[in-house]
């Protein structure tokens, strides 16, 4: 029987080979980037193809790749950074001594991989620019390293200028980021309309918040809308909680709340389209409200429930932000450039210092990448032909932080390169070998590659192979021999990366317990803050609880990413497997739903409201339960069990009577405390046995957690 992880790996390779994201194509940007290549070609050929011509063309080529990489910004900064970083790679890669060059390649790979872990944008920039290190010997064959480095910077500068050509929208990437957050909330509302206990799937909110927080200057409307994401999420959770409470009482009421959630999803999708499309559809609030008010439940009561009314008010504010963003002319809020740069630098250095320890996965991956690149560089230097540099270049591009990513990238790049080499070599035999015609073919391959970059990695690799083959024709080499040699080198580099990962792996399966424990800790912090707000509303700090929410989402995103990677690994425990960790996370997510609903019962303007009795004792019991779950997740000896159900019954008795001003809060807390206890019980049952506990997985539900 085939190992499930191996089977999943093969399936992912197949999906990656068949993947096609046609909606991601960016024809305008692809044409701009191809025009940058054309400018570099025309400029170098007009002055007689000097020795640094290939460096200028490669600088323009990589600057365009950086612009077309998914999730990268379309501004001029990215190609400029690629040009500058690539120039440094050329100078370093031009070292004459082979032993020193191998050592330098290891240090270079480690440094770029480790520094690239700060953000995805930095990682993309350094990975793309790192290619120039491995091409240095080829690019400096007929010129000095300094001239080649300057030509690389010039090529990147050409693409930076192309990025500024109209149509250029300064805030386009920021609008897309905010629209992605709204779309994620729309998906959440749709899921909650069908199931009020649906697990969280809003990791996009974390990325959106972080990306917008990194910006030095933004229109005020985008900044305000970014802060309002929390209010929208809380309002959605409040309506979902009301729907859950009505589930066993009145089907018409359930349908009413579900209709409100579906309307929310529709509105959020509209707002997302409004700030990202040229001509958004018109929105008539009166018609929407009339439709909702005509619901039988609203008609019979004469009012819309407070949860739905609050949600509509929040969405109306969201709509006003969307209108302001679309209208433009909003005040630009910016931090001083020097203060922003130094602050972000300190933050990045602090993050890197925190990761600089032997057991950190980033350090492990950086060291593995350094080792495989050094080995590939040594093989490349000993390769009997002039194209050995393709071996370390391929190893650099193929090796990823996870096994499935390395396998799929290696196979896809290998097959795409082989196909592109074969097709381009056949075409090279048929096309007349004139400089003008070959230049046009190079431009055509570059345009196809740019178009395919966000669409299909397989076709992108094939187009890059064609681009390289015809550039070889321009340099006067035998195209067929050089293309075959490059294909063989690519296969060697990809095989080296995959094989080295298997020998020195970072199996995500081994990390799932610790990642789940970290998530439990972040849920515990949020639970304490949410319950303390009910007990002591005057002490509520909005920024603190928002930071706690961001931490929960970040930890959940890390666990989900690792679990997805672990699913394709051909290994087992110790500790939870992928499905085990995700099952426990789903139970913890249901507990968080209850806490979100509790937290949403107090508005921002109600900080002076009265505290509820008995909440402190219940919060202590919940805190102890989370401590036990964190220990179970990590495989540690858990603390003593907490009778959480007894604490919930005691809280229920204390909340039975009270002032009318706290009736809604007491009712929601009594309902949600039962949901919280049930969810934590489920999580405890799922984790039983991970630490060697002899409790069977099919044991009846335990009252204690």
UniProtKB/TrEMBL annotation:
Q: Tell me the ranges covered by the Integral membrane bound transporter domain, including all copies.
A: 376-498
Per UniProt, the keywords (alphabetical) are: Cell membrane, Membrane, Transmembrane, Transmembrane helix
Transmembrane region(s): 25-44, 76-95, 107-134, 146-165, 366-383, 420-451, 457-476, 488-507
Q: What's an example GO cellular component term for this entry?
A: plasma membrane
InterPro entries, A to Z: Memb_transporter_dom (IPR049453)
Q: How does it sit in the membrane?
A: Multi-pass membrane protein
Write out the annotated subcellular location: Cell membrane
- In Pfam terms, one family for this protein is FUSC_2
Assigned protein family:
Belongs to the YccS/YhfK family.
> What is this protein called in UniProt?
Integral membrane bound transporter domain-containing protein
Q: What is the lineage of its organism?
A: Bacteria, Bacillati, Actinomycetota, Actinomycetes, Glycomycetales
């Amino acid at each position: 029987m085939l190992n499930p992880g191996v089977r999943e790996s093969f399936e992912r390779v197949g999906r990656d080979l068949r993947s096609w994201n046609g909606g991601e194509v960016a024809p305008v940007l692809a044409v701009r980037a191809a025009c940058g290549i054309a400018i570099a070609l025309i400029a170098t050929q007009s002055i007689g193809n000097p020795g640094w011509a290939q460096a200028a063309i490669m600088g323009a080529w990589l600057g365009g790749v950086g612009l077309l990489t998914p999730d990268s910004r379309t501004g001029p900064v990215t190609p400029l950074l690629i040009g500058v970083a690539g120039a440094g790679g050329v100078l370093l890669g031009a070292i004459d001594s082979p032993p020193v060059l191998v050592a330098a390649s290891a240090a270079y790979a480690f440094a770029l991989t480790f520094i690239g872990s700060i953000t995805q944008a930095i990682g993309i920039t350094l990975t793309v620019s790192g290619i120039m290190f491995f091409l240095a010997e080829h690019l400096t064959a007929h010129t000095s390293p300094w001239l080649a480095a300057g030509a690389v910077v010039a090529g990147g500068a050409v693409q930076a200028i192309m990025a500024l050509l109209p149509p250029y929208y300064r805030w386009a990437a920021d609008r897309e980021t905010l629209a992605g957050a709204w779309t994620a909330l729309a998906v959440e509302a749709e899921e909650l309309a069908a199931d009020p206990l649906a697990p969280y799937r809003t990791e996009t909110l974390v990325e959106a918040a972080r990306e917008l927080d990194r910006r030095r200057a933004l229109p005020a409307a985008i900044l305000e809308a970014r802060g309002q994401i929390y209010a929208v999420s809380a309002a959605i959770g409040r309506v979902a909680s009301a729907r859950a409470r009505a589930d066993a009482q009145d089907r018409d009421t359930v349908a009413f709340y579900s209709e409100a959630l579906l309307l929310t999803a529709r509105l959020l999708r509209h707002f997302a389209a409004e700030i990202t499309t040229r001509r958004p559809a018109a929105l008539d609030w009166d018609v929407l409200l009339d439709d909702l008010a005509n619901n039988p439940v609203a008609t019979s009561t004469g009012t819309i429930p407070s949860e739905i009314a609050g949600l509509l008010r929040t969405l109306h504010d969201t709509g006003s932000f969307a209108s302001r963003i679309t209208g433009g002319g909003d005040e630009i809020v910016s931090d001083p450039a020097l203060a922003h740069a130094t602050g972000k630098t300190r933050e990045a250095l602090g993050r890197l210092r925190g990761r600089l320890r032997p057991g950190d996965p980033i350090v492990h991956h950086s060291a593995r990448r350094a080792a495989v690149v050094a080995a590939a560089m040594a093989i490349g230097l000993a390769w009997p032909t002039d194209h050995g540099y393709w071996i370390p270049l391929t190893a650099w591009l193929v090796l990823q932080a996870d096994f499935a990513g390395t396998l799929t990238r290696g196979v896809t790049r290998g097959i795409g390169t082989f196909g592109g080499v074969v097709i381009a070599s056949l075409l090279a035999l048929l096309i007349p070998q004139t400089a003008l015609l070959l230049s046009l073919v190079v431009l055509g391959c570059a345009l196809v590659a740019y178009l395919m970059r966000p669409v299909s990695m397989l076709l992108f690799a094939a187009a890059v192979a064609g681009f390289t083959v015809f550039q070889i024709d321009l340099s006067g080499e035998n195209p067929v021999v050089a293309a075959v040699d490059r294909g063989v080198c690519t296969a060697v580099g990809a095989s080296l990366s995959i094989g080295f990962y298997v020998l020195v792996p970072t199996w995500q399966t081994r990390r799932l317990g610790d990642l789940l424990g970290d998530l439990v800790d972040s849920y515990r912090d949020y639970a304490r803050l949410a319950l303390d707000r009910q007990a002591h509303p005057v002490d509520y700090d909005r920024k603190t609880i928002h930071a706690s929410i961001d931490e929960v989402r970040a930890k959940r995103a890390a666990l989900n990413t690792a679990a997805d990677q672990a699913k394709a690994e051909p290994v087992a425990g110790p500790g939870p497997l992928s499905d085990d960790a995700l099952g426990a996370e789903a139970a913890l997510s249901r507990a968080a739903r209850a806490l979100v609903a509790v937290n949403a019962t107090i508005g921002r303007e109600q900080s002076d409201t009265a505290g509820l009795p008995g909440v402190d004792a219940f919060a202590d019991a919940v805190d102890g339960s989370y401590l036990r779950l964190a220990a179970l997740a990590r495989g540690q000896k858990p603390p003593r069990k907490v009778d959480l159900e007894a604490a919930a019954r005691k809280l229920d008795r204390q909340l039975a009577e009270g002032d009318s001003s706290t009736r809604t809060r007491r009712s929601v807390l009594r309902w949600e405390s039962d949901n919280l206890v049930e969810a934590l019980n489920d999580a405890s049952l799922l984790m039983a046995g991970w630490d060697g506990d002899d409790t069977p997985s099919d044991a009846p539900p335990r009252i204690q957690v």
